[in-house]
């Protein structure tokens, strides 16, 4: 059985207690996107300020559990200052980290697996269309290393019910980037 | 005088002997679904091993026995809720949700239209909300809501205006979030004075205290087997016989007809008119066993135990955590069912229940299928512990201690 220490790593708790980039940005010029976890009612608001293809600034609002909050905090630190293309790559890597284990959960996780959550439901529920090939490709070692602190969230996949908590802010960010791209 | 031997009761429930991390599980989620005693498991197993056949059809011995067991279960539930005509007033459904859908889809469809309104409360479970929202979209009637006040009671200050001209009052007997024990008998009298019928949601009430549909004064009562030591897959609708007779059928198929021609059909008598297809037979047998188990304990004793344990838990939590814990719902355990929703420091309910799980304590975190109420309470979710016959003070102590662990881990506040 997966232990709590797999889920609540110190770095995760640190981001939860001291969230980075928390707050709002004036809209406009910033872009505001809301994400919602229908299962538990958690809400994430991502404020994005993108200029010349660079995520100049972003802020996180809303409320949720330690996993969704720390994931959002780490995400904000990871993509701030990056190009939107880099941000998208980080999103893809993170999401593949969150899903590679899902297919193996049936056999390995035993009691921890949740039959209520069919595979892939996290991306479907967010209402986003994602390229399934991207989802399924396991991240390389190099990509995992590049995730830095974010790799600490890997333990979440052992707790399938919580995967949606971890991916909420990322789906919201992806949606925000899409909205900005189409409105530009 | 304590005639309620919880240790002996616990021993009747195989699942409560199961260990995680070397500890027996502490099951505090009976409001979502209770566990079953050996007697229920045995009754169903024996039924399948020795008696199963389809009901109301065969003339051979086991088919007759199966039919008798099934109808006895109906009768037993009718008696359990004090039905005046227990053999004809109980309809078996899939769960409480389907029982509400049955009322909406038959009585509601036939009686509600533009210009009409019904009254529900802000604390209804989605089961007693969404079927009416769906029907109102089709039939164009409106829905008014009795508000919930800050202390978790229904705010009845505008009740006369709300009920004025209403066709139906739908109200939960016990809130599955706040635990509030609603004054349904008084509300039913007010509703009847306006000519409205009363649907009582007994999902959190019938399992926990002596029930009399005549004392409650309701016209419909719904409940669900799996929250009262019985199996999943069986729900119960009680309604006055005259009312059932007026209502059109619900689902169509075998069993619910008296005659079928190629150009039409004649429905069966009540209650079979509402039971299309093969019913939950083994589930009814299991339910009957659950009812006798509860009757063996005595429903007054079940309720007394619940009040005592809920009171103990409220005191223990407040003693241990003071202002850091917020208990939702009315003060005083006799004003509530065995449901305790709480907020603990700034900890998110998901995190609380995750840490409690590691301590072997099963509680619920989420919106408890009552999203409008969550909005009213201005929370996205609550943590909820709920108690039943097999819970004792040690289970409460385990909860209190496990909350301490959650506090240690997150270390804020
Ligand atoms: C108050 C209330 N009503 C209705 C229901 C629905 O019961 P079921 O899911 O068995 O239909 C529940 C159970 O969650 C409940 O707590």
Give me the secondary-structure topology.
The complex is a heterodimer of chains A (184) and B (413).
Chain A: H1 4-7, H2 10-17, E1 31-36, E2 43-51, E3 54-63, H3 66-79, H4 84-100, H5 102-108, H6 121-125, H7 132-136, H8 141-147, H9 160-183
Antiparallel strand pairs in A: 1-2, 2-3
Chain B: H1 6-11, E1 19-20, E2 23-24, E3 26-27, H2 38-51, H3 61-80, E4 90-93, H4 96-111, E5 117-121, H5 130-139, E6 142-146, H6 159-163, E7 168-172, H7 184-193, E8 197-201, H8 213-216, E9 220-224, E10 235-239, H9 241-246, E11 257-261, E12 264-267, H10 281-297, H11 299-321, E13 325-327, E14 339-344, H12 349-358, E15 361-362, E16 364-366, H13 371-377, E17 382-386, H14 393-410
Parallel strand pairs in B: 3-15, 5-6, 5-7, 7-8, 8-9
Antiparallel strand pairs in B: 1-2, 4-10, 9-10, 11-12, 13-14, 14-17, 16-17
Helix pairs in contact in B: 2-10, 3-10, 4-5, 10-11, 11-14, 12-14
The structure holds pyridoxal-5'-phosphate (PLP).
Structure write-up:
- The complex is a heterodimer of chains A (184) and B (413).
- Chain A is of the alpha+beta class and 184 residues long.
- Chain A has a single domain (2-113, 130-183), classed as Sufe protein. Chain: A (Alpha-Beta Complex).
- Chain A has nine helices and three strands.
- Chain A has helices at residues 4-7, 10-17, 66-79, 84-100, 102-108, 121-125, 132-136, 141-147, 160-183, and strands at 31-36, 43-51, 54-63.
- In chain A, strands 1-2-3 form a three-stranded antiparallel β-sheet, with helices on one face.
- In chain A, a hairpin with a 6-residue loop joins strand 1 and strand 2 (43-51).
- In chain A, helix 2 (10-17) crosses helix 3 (66-79) and helix 4 (84-100) packs antiparallel against helix 9.
- Chain A is globular and about 45 Å long.
- Chain B is α/β, with parallel strands linked by helices and 413 residues long.
- Chain B has two domains: 6-30 and 298-410, Aspartate Aminotransferase, domain 1; 41-295, Aspartate Aminotransferase, domain 2.
- Helices cover 40% and strands 16% of the residues of chain B.
- Chain B has helices spanning 6-11, 38-51, 61-80, 96-111, 130-139, 159-163, 184-193, 213-216, 241-246, 281-297, 299-321, 349-358, 371-377, 393-410; strands at 19-20, 23-24, 26-27, 90-93, 117-121, 142-146, 168-172, 197-201, 220-224, 235-239, 257-261, 264-267, 325-327, 339-344, 361-362, 364-366, 382-386.
- Chain B has a seven-stranded mixed β-sheet, sandwiched between helices. In chain B, strands 13-14-17-16 form a four-stranded antiparallel β-sheet, with helices on one face.
- In chain B, helix 3 (61-80) packs across helix 10 (281-297), helix 10 (281-297) crosses helix 11 and helix 11 (299-321) packs parallel to helix 14 (393-410).
- The two termini of chain B are 42 Å apart.
- The interface between A and B is medium-sized, with 22 and 20 residues.
- Bound molecules: pyridoxal-5'-phosphate.
């Amino acid at each position: 059985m997966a232990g709590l220490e797999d889920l609540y790593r110190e770095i995760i708790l640190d981001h939860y207690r001291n969230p980075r980039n928390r707050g709002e940005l004036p809209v406009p010029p910033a872009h505001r996107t809301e994400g919602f976890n229908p299962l538990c009612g958690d809400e994430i608001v991502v404020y994005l300020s993108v200029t010349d293809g660079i995520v100049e600034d972003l802020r996180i609002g809303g409320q949720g559990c330690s996993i969704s909050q720390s994931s959002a905090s780490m995400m904000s630190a990871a993509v701030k200052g990056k190009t939107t293309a880099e941000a998208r790559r980080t999103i893809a890597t993170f999401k593949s980290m969150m899903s590679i284990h899902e297919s193996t959960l049936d056999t390995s996780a035993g009691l921890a697996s949740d039959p209520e959550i069919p595979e892939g439901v996290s991306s479907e529920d967010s209402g986003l269309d994602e390229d399934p090939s991207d989802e399924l490709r396991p991240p390389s070692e190099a990509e995992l290393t590049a995730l830095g602190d974010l790799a600490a969230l890997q333990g979440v996949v052992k707790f399938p019910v919580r995967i949606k908590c971890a991916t909420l802010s990322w789906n919201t960010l992806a949606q925000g980037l899409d909205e900005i791209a189409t409105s530009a | 005088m304590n005639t309620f031997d919880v240790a002996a009761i616990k021993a009747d429930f195989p699942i409560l002997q199961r260990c995680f991390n070397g500890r027996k599980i502490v099951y505090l989620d009976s409001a979502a679904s209770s566990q079953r005693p050996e007697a229920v498991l045995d009754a169903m197993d024996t039924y399948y091993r020795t008696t199963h056949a389809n009901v109301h059809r065969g003339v051979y011995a086991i088919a007759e026995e199966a039919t008798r067991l099934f109808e006895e279960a109906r009768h037993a539930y009718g008696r359990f809720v004090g039905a005046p005509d227990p053999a004809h007033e109980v309809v078996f459904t899939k769960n409480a949700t389907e029982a509400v859908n049955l009322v909406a889809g038959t009585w509601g469809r036939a009686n509600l239209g533009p210009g009409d309104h019904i009254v529900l409360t802000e604390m209804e479970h989605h089961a007693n909300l969404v079927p009416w929202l769906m029907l109102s979209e089709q039939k164009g009637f409106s829905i008014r809501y009795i508000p919930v006040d800050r202390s978790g009671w229904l705010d009845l200050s505008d009740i006369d205006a709300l009920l004025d001209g209403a066709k139906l009052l739908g109200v939960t007997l016990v809130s599955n979030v706040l635990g509030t024990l609603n004054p349904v008998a008084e509300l039913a009298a007010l509703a009847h004075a306006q000519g409205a019928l009363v649907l009582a949601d007994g999902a959190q009430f019938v399992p926990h205290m002596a029930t009399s549909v005549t004392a409650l004064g309701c016209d419909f009562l719904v409940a669900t087997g799996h929250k009262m030591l019985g199996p999943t897959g069986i729900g119960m609708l009680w309604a006055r016989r005259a009312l059932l007779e007026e209502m059109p059928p619900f689902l169509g198929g075998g069993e619910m007809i008296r005659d079928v021609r190629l150009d039409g059909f004649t429905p069966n008598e009540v209650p079979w008119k509402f039971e299309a297809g093969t019913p939950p037979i083994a589930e009814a047998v299991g339910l009957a066993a659950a009812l006798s188990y509860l009757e063996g304990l005595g429903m007054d004793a079940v309720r007394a135990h619940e009040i005592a344990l809920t009171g103990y838990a409220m005191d223990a939590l407040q003693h241990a955590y003071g202002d850091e814990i917020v208990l939702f719902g009315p003060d005083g355990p006799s004003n509530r069912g065995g449901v305790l929703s709480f907020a603990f420091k700034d900890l998110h309910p998901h995190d609380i229940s995750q840490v409690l799980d590691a301590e072997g304590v099963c509680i619920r975190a989420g919106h408890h299928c009552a999203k409008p109420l969550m909005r009213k309470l201005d929370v996205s979710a609550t943590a909820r512990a709920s108690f039943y016959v097999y819970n004792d003070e040690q289970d409460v102590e385990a909860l209190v201690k496990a909350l301490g662990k959650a506090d240690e881990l997150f270390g804020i506040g």
